[in-house]
Design brief:
Ribosomal_bS21_sf, 76 residues, flat, ribonucleoprotein, structural constituent of ribosome, 66% helix, 3 helices, Small ribosomal subunit protein bS21, mainly alpha
């Protein structure tokens, strides 16, 4: 991973680096590796993640087909 420092602006480069690391999931992985995870806990976590992914995918498909309305609001 590479970040360019422009005009000796290290603070901006750090912000960009943190954002890139966040997007890549590095912070989540570091937190997960901090302590040992039992195999049963790992299976339960992965199953929960799979359920969330499938629900998200089904929700997106339903929105595309017009079965449910899109969420209004957001940032800004």
């Amino acid at each position: 991973m590479q970040v360019l420092v422009r005009d000796n602006n290290v603070d901006q480069a750090l912000r960009v680096l943190k954002k890139k690391m966040q997007r890549e999931g590095l912070f989540r992985e570091m937190k997960a590796r901090r302590a040992y995870e039992k195999p049963s806990e790992k299976r339960a976590r992965e199953k929960g993640e799979a359920v969330r992914r499938s629900r998200k995918q089904a929700r997106k498909l339903a929105q595309r087909e017009g079965l449910i309305g899109r969420k209004r609001g957001g940032r800004g």
